[in-house]
Design a protein that fits this description.
The complex is a heterodimer.
Chain A: E1 4-7, E2 10-13, E3 18-25, E4 31-37, E5 44-50, E6 53-57, E7 64-70, E8 73-79, E9 87-94, E10 104-105, E11 109-113
Parallel strand pairs in A: 2-11
Antiparallel strand pairs in A: 1-3, 3-8, 4-5, 4-9, 5-6, 7-8, 9-10, 9-11
Chain B: E1 4-6, E2 11-14, E3 19-25, E4 33-38, E5 45-50, E6 54-58, E7 61-66, E8 71-76, E9 85-93, E10 96-102, E11 106-111
Parallel strand pairs in B: 2-11
Antiparallel strand pairs in B: 1-3, 3-8, 4-5, 4-9, 6-7, 7-8, 9-10, 9-11
The chains are: A mainly beta, B mainly beta.
Amino acid sequence: DTEVTQTPKHLVMGMTNKKSLKCEQHMGHRAMYWYKQKAKKPPELMFVYSYEKLSINESVPSRFSPECPNSSLLNLHLHALQPEDSALYLCASSQDPGISYGYTFGSGTRLTIV
Amino acid sequence: QKEVEQNSGPLSVPEGAIASLNCTYSDRGSQSFFWYRQYSGKSPELIMFIYSNGDKEDGRFTAQLNKASQYVSLLIRDSQPSDSATYLCALGVAGNNRKLIWGLGTSLAVNP
């Protein structure tokens, strides 16, 4: 299995809703990432988990809350988002240590805040 | 000064030609270099990585790295319309082996 699976593929939510994005990989990768990507921009790093511990938080607003229940799963909990948070949210994983062979990205969740 | 610079394009080449995509960087400590392809509305896909000076070939793709001149390039031989996409250059950050620094990407259009 060489895939990173993200669900849902599309999500529309109101500013008062609570929702979660899910990511799963079975490649034995021990580093997992959340990225945000706006149109015509490169991916923007949000969080990095290494061996199930949060190792990087790129000063992301608290309305985004990551969780890594085990080495294969990564969640991103969303609450009270703003319209400017509408974007493609990408999960990625890599072998650890580091990124020697690059990331494998999931197909992403297209999030729209209304 | 931007850390990773790419020509935004669009770069337009005829089918069958060689497409040449370039990326320059400022951090001399960068150790690892990656090329990702991203189709519109899709997620990035890793197509090449390179660590050492020189060329690295994989099928129709060749990555070239010159650390002295601080550039990395991607050549696509026999370009196909299916190669039309945005190509993102990314660098491994010196001293932080889990973070990539991304260029803004070059849009490539291969015309039949």
